[in-house]
Structure formats: structure tokens, C-alpha cells
TrEMBL record:
One of its GO terms (molecular function) is dihydroorotate dehydrogenase (quinone) activity. It is a peripheral membrane protein. Binds 1 FMN per subunit. Catalyzes the conversion of dihydroorotate to orotate with quinone as electron acceptor. Keywords: Cell membrane, Flavoprotein, FMN, Membrane, Oxidoreductase, Pyrimidine biosynthesis. Its cofactor is FMN. This is Dihydroorotate dehydrogenase (quinone). Its EC number is 1.3.5.2. It catalyses: (S)-dihydroorotate + a quinone = orotate + a quinol. Residues 50-337 form the Dihydroorotate dehydrogenase catalytic domain. The active site is at S179 (nucleophile).
Length: 339
């Protein structure tokens, strides 16, 4: 139904407008009596064999929704009814910011991909916290970043503000230094500034009565040498793990008219590279830390390949948009077939 009826209609509308329309429609849908039960019956797969305990958290299944879809924590409860084991909100920044100028979101239909240059548009961490206070059971990851106007030398302060604000309201944290859409942000992936940032967060984390897992989200464009640095940094700072990967700045092999738009590319063109990064990190670290695999998961096979490459959990974004919520169910069913 989604691919034959709903997607053709949605894909004839500007992608950013569709995003907000979908949020409004889902919010209204779940106000209808019995709607939550009906949706869950159609999409949620419940089975003990799907449960995963990763960095001290028990996930009901290993398929999550990646950051960027529910930036402001406005729809995490509703989205969880489509079968996700966890939902990652953000990227959130200390202060609200509008992001980059529109148009900033592009569908590459021929490539089953999306290019975005959103630029951390969000309403600020304080607003998101107020919504998260109403959470009753959804496992939440908090993806945090810095404001565009904050210089890199003061970036640690922005991450700490978000960390402190979200601490009581999320189950794990994700440090995003790999988005290509905030000027100079990726410079924070260099070994010295990244080590400083993660050490600062982790030192504060360990002082608390109960610490929270901190993960690092990395770009797929890192070289093998840089990936080895990432392994060293995780060992040195003691953070919980990695999310591999964010969007790419590569445009290799694209055929769609909008392929030259600037921004981060996600979807099918990223499938192979994201899996390569997962396998490299897993093998070179001797599986020393958990990896959440994300990037180009368009089919159950793509998800299984990432799990077999060394990922403990996976996340969807572009695949969810192109294939619909049925993809979550199909991945969980495929995992069960192989268990």
C-alpha cells in the first residue's frame, strides 16, 4: 500500500513540506480511538529472540529510527508504534536555530537517495526536554551538536549544555561531529579536538550516580588511518561505542538530476561504504565496542549485512522514507528467520 499508493502521492510534493505534513497526519491519526493498537498489530514484531542488551540497555529489537527524522522529539511515541526498538532524536543544539536556507532537501529517486543540507535546524534543547518529560517507555537516544555560530574552540561548551539538559531524559547520547552541513563541524573529528570533547563529556558522565552510554557518530568519508584514530580515541576516552555512519559528501555513481546539490547524501549509494566502515572498526578493534550500523539500509538484506559485519543494532532513515514502515517489520522478521 505504501509503495503503490502513499509514496507516489507524497513524492510529488516538496520533500521538506511532506515531512511536516506527515508529522501532522500521524499526530492526528494517533488521536483516533484504537489507532495505536491497530498500527502496532500491523507493524510491531514482539519476540524475545529480538531483544538485544547493548551498552547496558535492553532493546526490544535491534532496529531503530536514526537521528534527523524526529529532530525535536515531537513524534517519538507515535513513531515507536511502527515497530522501532528505539528512536534517536536530534541533532539538538543549545539554542534554537533555523538551519540553512531552503531549498535544502532533495530526493534522488533514480538513486534511491536523499541529499540534505538542513544545518541542524531545531527548536533548541530546552523545548525538546519538555516533550521528553512526557515519555512513558520509548527508548530514546539523544543526538547532540553545536550551534552554527559557536566557534569550534568553544564547541565543548555547547555539547555540555545539551548533555546536561538531556541527561535525565534520554537512554544514551550521540555526539555528532560528522554532519557536513554545519561549517567546519567535521574538523572536530580530528584526533586532538575530538579526544578533548569526548573526555570532557565522559569525565562529567562518570561523576554522576549512574552514567549514560556516550556514542560517537562518524562520517563514512574517513580514511582507514582516521578510522584507526577513532578506535584509539574510543579506547582512550572510554565512551560506549560508535554510530557508523552519517551522510557522505561523495557523489560517486549517481544518476539523478539533483546529484550536484551540496549536502549530505544518504540512502542506497551509502549501503556498501557504511558496511565497510562497520566491518573495519569491528575487525581492527577486535570487537572492543558496540557499533550501531546506519547508512543505506533499504532492504532486510542490507540490515543483515551490517549486523554480520559487526553492528549490534541498526538504524533506518532514508530506507524508511522510500520503503515505508513495513521495512522495520521485514527486517525483524528476517532476523528471526536466522535466529
Amino acid at each position: 500500500m505504501y509503495q503503490k499508493i502513499i509514496r507516489p502521492v507524497l513524492f510529488n510534493i516538496d520533500p521538506e513540506k511532506v515531512h511536516y505534513f506527515t508529522f501532522s497526519a500521524l499526530r492526528k491519526l494517533f488521536l483516533l480511538p484504537g489507532s495505536q493498537k491497530l498500527v502496532r498489530q500491523n507493524f510491531v514484531v514482539e519476540d524475545k529472540r529480538l531483544e538485544r542488551e547493548v551498552f547496558g540497555i535492553k532493546f526490544p529489537n535491534p532496529v531503530g529510527l536514526a537521528a534527523g527524522f524526529d529532530k525535536d522529539a515531537k513524534l517519538f511515541k507515535e513513531l515507536s508504534n511502527f515497530g522501532f526498538g528505539f528512536v534517536e532524536i536530534g541533532t539538538l543544539t543549545p539554542q534554537p536555530q533555523p538551519g540553512n536556507e531552503k531549498k535544502r532537501l532533495f530526493r534522488l529517486r533514480e538513486d534511491k537517495a536523499i541529499i540534505n543540507r538542513m544545518g541542524f535546524n531545531n527548536g533548541g534543547v530546552a523545548e525538546a526536554v519538555e516533550r521528553l518529560k512526557k515519555n512513558t517507555g520509548v527508548l530514546i537516544g539523544g543526538n547532540i551538536g553545536k550551534n552554527k555560530i559557536t566557534p569550534n574552540e568553544n564547541a565543548v561548551d555547547d555539547y555540555m549544555i545539551c548533555f546536561n539538559a538531556l541527561f535525565e531524559h534520554v537512554d544514551y547520547f550521540v555526539v555528532n561531529v560528522s554532519s557536513p552541513n554545519t561549517p567546519n563541524l567535521r574538523e572536530l573529528q580530528d584526533k586532538e579536538p575530538l579526544t578533548k570533547l569526548l573526555n570532557t563529556l565522559q569525565q562529567d558522565n562518570l561523576k554522576r550516580p549512574k552514567s549514560k552510554p556516550i556514542l560517537l557518530k562518524i562520517a563514512p568519508d574517513l580514511t582507514d588511518t582516521q578510522l584507526l584514530d577513532i578506535i584509539d580515541i574510543i579506547k582512550e576516552t572510554g565512551i560506549a561505542g560508535v554510530i557508523a555512519t552519517n551522510t557522505t559528501i561523495s557523489r560517486e555513481g549517481l544518476t539523478s538530476p539533483d546529484q550536484k546539490e551540496t549536502g549530505g547524501l544518504s540512502g542506497k549509494p551509502l549501503t556498501k561504504r557504511a558496511t565497510e566502515v562497520i566491518r573495519f572498526l569491528s575487525e581492527k578493534s577486535n570487537q572492543a565496542f558496540p557499533i550501531i550500523g546506519v547508512g543505506g539500509i533499504m532492504t532486510p538484506k542490507d540490515a543483515i549485512e551490517k549486523l554480520e559485519a559487526g553492528a549490534s543494532l541498526v538504524q533506518l532513515y532514508t530506507g524508511f522514507i522510500y520503503e515505508g514502515p513495513q521495512l522495520v517489520k521485514k527486517i525483524n522478521q528476517e532476523i528471526l528467520k536466522r535466529s
